[in-house]
Amino acid sequence: MNNNEAKIYSFLGLAQRAGKLVSGDDSTMLEIKKNRVKLVIVADDASNNTKKLFKDKTSFRNINCVTYSTKLQLGLAIGKAPRAVVGIKDASFANKVLELIENTKI
Q1: pLDDT digits 0-9 by tens, 29-39
Q2: Which of 8, 24, 63, 90 could bond to 20 as cystine, CB 3.0-4.6 Å?
Q3: Which H or E run contains 53?
């Protein structure tokens, strides 16, 4: 794991503790519909249906959506069971995580 990845996971943990993160398919979808989510992260190993569903919902509402990490890693980062989807509700957290993810993929 490189430095950026470690930062991404620690930001997710921080967001979780700050109450700025929502996880799991249903909860995240609910928050997307209420337009409260700034960034959605879908695990690489989530089902194709899940990926498509969240891509469609987020693009319709102009919310950033990225595919990153694994269900296990996302769950561990926020101190929960494996999660296929997490949503960040805080704009500054979302921007920072998105920036780190984009730098990691290069």
Answers
A1: 999 999 999 99
A2: 90
A3: helix 48-60
